[in-house]
Structure formats: C-alpha cells, structure tokens
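#struct-pred

JT: dropping the chains for the assembly here, can someone run the whole complex?
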Amino acid sequence: MKTLLEIKDLWVEVEGREVLKGISLKIPVGETHVIFGKNGSGKTSLLMTIMGFPEYRVKHGQIIFKGKDITHLPPFERARKGIGIMFQRPPTVKGVKLRDILELCAKHNGIKIEELAMEFGFEHFLDREINRGFSGGEIKKSELLQLLLQDPDLVLLDEPESGVDIENMQLIGKMIKKLLQKEDPHLPRQKSGLVITHTGFILQYVTADLGYVIIDGEIYCQGNPIEIFEGIQKYGYEECKKCLKRKKFLQLEVE
Amino acid sequence: MNDVKKLSLSKEEEELLKLLGLDPSLKREGEFLQIDGRAVRCQKQVEGLEILPIKEALQKYEWLEKDYYWKLLTPGKDEFTKEVAENLDDGYFIRVPAGLKLVYPIQACLYIHTKDYRQKVHNIVIVEEGAELNLITSCAVHPHISSALHIGVSEYYVKKGGKLTYTMLHMWGEKTQVRPGTGVIVEEGGTFISTYVSLSPVKDLRTSPICRLTGKGAKASFVSIVVNHPNSYVDVGGEVFLEAENTNAEIISRTVIYGGENIAKSRIVAKAPKVRGHLECEGLMLSDNGIMRAIPELDSHFSDVELTHEAAVGKIAREEVEYLMARGLSEDEATSLIVKGFLTVKIEGISPELQKQIDKALETAKLGF
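RK: done, full complex below.
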C-alpha cells in the first residue's frame, strides 16, 4: 500500500532537551494509527514536529510526506500540502471569529461553512471569538470543524477525548469518522490519521489500524491497537518497558 | 457650493474621499465637505435638521456665539487653539431639533488639498432633547503633498436624553501635523459614543477630548483604534468627568505599534457618588523600534464609586501565529489577521453600517508586514 507519511529515525530537541529519540514509523494512505503514552512521553512533541513548529528542532532524521522530504518546511506549507492538526489547547485570538478562520480553511475547496456547522449543531459559535470561553467539548468541535473544512489527507489528533463529556464524545467521534472517511467501513479511504491518547478512550469511537507505545521519546512497541490498549489497562505503561514484545519489536527494527 | 466636480480633484482624490465616506451609494441624512479653508458642500435630506458652515451659522444665530461658541474649550489653551480663534477658516454647525432621531449618518469630511496648508476648523454640534445623531467625520490630506497642518476645535452638546454617535476616521500623511481639540457636554440621560480610527502614518497627532457628564444617568464611551507607524508621534487621550449620579464612562484604546512613539493617556474623574468608569488600554508591539506609553488614571472624590482599569502592552503571542500557520496561513498572513482582530473592537450602540465602514477601513489599511 502507498505510504503517505514516513518518519525515519527522528531525533528532536526542545530548548536543548531531547524529546524524541529515534522515532520511525510509516502510515499508509487510508490508515489510522494510534500512539499511546503517558503525559510527557513525547506524543505531542511528535505531532508538533510533524506539523513543523520551529520550537521542535529536528537534530537528525527525516519526515517524508507524499514522497517529498518536508523535514524543514514551515507549518503553513505542510498544511497546504495536506497535513492538518487538532490542537489540544488552542489559543484564543482576540477579535478573530471562528468564522474568519473557517473561511480561510475553506478557501480552496468551496465547502459550505454554514451547512457543515449546522450538521454538528455548531452554527451558534461561528460568530464567537475563537476559543474564548469554549468548553472542552466546544474546543474539540471547533477544531474538528476547521479540519473538516481544511480537508487534509493526514489528520493529526492530539488527545481528541480530553476534557469531553460522554454526551459530546458521540458527536466528536462522528466528526472524526467523517474526517477520516470511516463513516462507511466498506468504501476505500484516502484519508489517514495519527491519533495520540493517554487514556485510549477514543478507540471506543474511532477504529485504528495500528498502535504504538511511546515512552521517554522512544517507540517501545507496535501492534494491534486494541491489544496494546488492553495491555496498558492491565499492567500500566511501566510494565511496557519489561514487555516481551519489546524484544521482538527491537529485532524487527534491526532487520 | 454643492458642486464638487468644479473643484478639479484628481481621480485618486475622488477615490480617497469615497473611501472616507463621501460615497453616493451610502445612505446619508446630510453631508458636509470642507477643502482647505472652504466649505464646498453642505446638504441635508431632512426637514428641521440644520447643517451650515460655522461662519454662516455664527452670522445667522446670535445665540450660537453667546451660548455655544468657545464655551467648552478656551482659545488660549495653546498656540493652536489660539490660531483657530484668531484666523478661522470654517467648519460645520449641525443642530438636530428636539425629538428628531436620525436613522442614517451625517457624513462630514475635512480635506487638505494644498501643500503646506494650515487648515483651521471649528465645529459645533447640538443634539437637542431626545434627538439622535450619528455623525461621521473623515479627515484626510492629498495623497502626494509633503506637509500640512490641521487644527480642529470641536464642541459637542448632547441635551437631555439625546444621543450622539460620533466617529472620526483619520487618514493623514507622513508629514501632516494634527491637533484636534474636542469638548463634550452630556446632560441627563444623554449618551455620547465616540470612536476614533487612525490607521495611516502621520507626523505628529495630539488629541485629548474632554467630556463632562453633567446630568444624572449620562453615559460616554470613547474607543480609539490606532496604528502607530515609524516616524509618527501619536498622543491620543481622553478625559471624562463624572459630575452627576449614575453617570457611566468607558475609555478603550487599542494600539498597534510598527514604530514611532505612542501615548495612550486616559483619565476618568469621579466628581459625584454612584458613578462607574472603566479604562482599558492595550498595545501590541510589532517592532523594537517604537515606544508605547499607556497611562491610565482614575481620580475619585467619593467612596461610593466603581472605577477600574486594565492596561497591557506586549508582543503577538507566538502560539497564536503558529495556530493560524497550522491552518495554512503564512507567517505574514497570520500576523495580519491577529493585528486586524486586535483592532476589531465591538463598539456598542453604533449602526451595523458604520461598523462595516470601520471594518472596511481596517481592510484597506492592509495591516501586517
């Protein structure tokens, strides 16, 4: 299957501190991968580096997207190439309405803002200052609405379930499914996703093709996401360090 | 007087005046245009409303000089006001009769066409009891003249229960000196809403309107939206005196500094109990080659008052720029959107049409780097 994103031996520093230590992974077109890890394990750093924020300095390694090396491109060029990110804690921007940003996101594809907002019951937020006073669930909806209009080929989701109550989680799950073309399981997909989570709760709403565990900036294992999640639930992240699969995973890397 | 075509303005100047509001497609209750020292257009659509050049009005009405002329400001305040008093060009006199609520704005425009001209203007506006007026005054200078001076003296009277929404859009030049002096008095239950917008470079601009709320329940709001360019010195202030119970005032300023020097000085004085006042002053520094001074001042002569202020000066938050870049905006586009958002103040009580005109001015200013 065609690879959309490939990360090769990525080493990243933030303010002189190593946050990613030799990450490698491949996401084929149409697949969704999920990364499990504790807070501070490097999950968010990985997403931020893929998006290209300058604070995350790549010391070594490569990020290949659609066959092109994007390791040193600024974020907006990556966005224009088809990478979109859902922020966990997006900032408020004084005087800028959600609609202003949605219009910019929809500039090139002609998707109707009002219609889409109404589909998810979010039309009343269009003329509000972006993120000001939004609840956890409202932030997620606002982020996902922006992404649906941006229509990226690779979606990076940073803890999509954090701060959201169960009632809203249904709708957020629905939005993510639409974004990743998972509404109909039988149709071929063009959209790929990389989801990070520390609770794993999101898997109840969105299926994933492959899971990884990241600890201290390193990928410890990869495999069936449900099995990995069950293992973490049962033994915790600390036990991942002793896991027998770890040996097998390292061998695979060498091969 | 009403034939602008005879003035031989260039296409560019006509476009500029249109942008400033002299646009036939906009609905207006009246218009006033002064070019250099001459009032060249003065017209109204409504019976009872008066719009006259001030010199003509002073001749017509004795009471105007006796009761209103130089009553809120003094000629000896400084050398500039003195020059206006001694050698007045012209200006506008607008009077809205009691109970008349005008729906659309009156557009006034003070324009300097000639190089090195010293434009000396005196305006008087009287909003009688229960009347309402929305006045837009646009000021500009010929796009290619090297230097000019504008001195404006404005005296505004809002009678009992009246409402004056006053908006000033300035588009001066890099070598223009500007000295507007404004005095306002608001009687019981009256409202004065002032919005000042200056987005273009100017050499030296100093203004500090003085507003007295003399009747119970009177309200005043001053909002200023200023972009400070390199080599510009801008001092936009405001003073409100709360002289009766239940009066209420706010002074809000938003300034973006690309360079030059800016002073945002505002003061609210509580001279009666049970009054409220709020100052808000925010500055966004986009350069290290500029100076911003935010000087809020609250004075109270009574204990039963509510006076507050907020002031903040700082740079654009990096995370806001990056947030927008992740949506596909270049760094310049993101900065421009943030600056535009920062300057977009929701002004309570103004018409949507006027808000659109202010937004258009912001668009046209092509903010950002």
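JT: nice. Chain B has a mean pLDDT of 91. Chain B touches chain A through 23 residues (CB under 8 Å).
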